[in-house]
């Protein structure tokens, strides 16, 4: 069972991620955080394997947070999310492993998860 962390101020997005994930894999949400600072404070104790991060966060961008997370835990899979596709390149340059365009799409979510864990995904 994979441990998931979600960093987004929008509870609807958090719920959408959980619903989508449940279609493709077994997981437990180890943490939901509204800010980058809060997420960093809980990163060690929650030890997530996949981290979904909204690009536009208060106090620190999701791109900067992705960079900090990858330096702390390079094996964590970081997926950035934004309505603006232009953040994709900056996200990958910061070490993100995936990028989802909002509104979130089941097929895109499936493709990213299958790339990360090809043997664990329900089809």
3D architecture notes:
The protein is an alpha/beta fold. 44% of the residues lie in helices and 23% in strands. The protein has five helices and five strands, in the order βαβαβαβαβα. It has a five-stranded parallel sheet with strand order 2-1-3-4-5, with helices on both faces. α4 links the parallel β4 (77-82) and β5 (98-101). The longest helix is centred in the first third of the chain and has 14 residues, at 11-24. It is globular. The two termini are 17 Å apart.
Helix content: 40-55%
Oligomer kind: single chain
Query: Approximately what portion of the residues adopt beta-strand conformation?
Result: 15-25%
Class per helix and strand makeup: alpha/beta
The coarse overall form would be globular
Low-confidence stretches: none
Number of DSSP helices? 5
Number of strands: 5
Mean pLDDT: 95
Distance between the termini: 17 Å
Radius of gyration: 13 Å
Report strand order across the widest sheet: 2-1-3-4-5
Q: Could you give a short description of this structure?
A:
Helix content is 44%, strand content 23%. It is α/β, with parallel strands linked by helices. β1 (2-7), α1 (11-24) and β2 form a beta-alpha-beta unit.
């Amino acid at each position: 069972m994979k441990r998931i962390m979600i960093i987004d101020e929008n509870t609807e997005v958090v719920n959408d991620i959980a619903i989508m994930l449940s279609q493709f894999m077994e997981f437990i949400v180890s943490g939901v955080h509204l800010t980058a600072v809060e997420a960093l404070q809980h990163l060690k104790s929650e030890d997530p394997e996949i981290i979904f991060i909204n690009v536009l966060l208060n106090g620190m961008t999701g791109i900067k947070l992705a960079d900090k997370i990858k330096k702390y835990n390079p094996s964590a899979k970081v997926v950035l999310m934004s309505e603006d596709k232009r953040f994709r390149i900056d996200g990958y340059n910061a070490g993100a492993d995936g990028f989802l365009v909002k509104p979130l799409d089941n097929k895109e979510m499936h493709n990213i998860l299958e790339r990360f864990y090809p043997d664990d995904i329900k089809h």
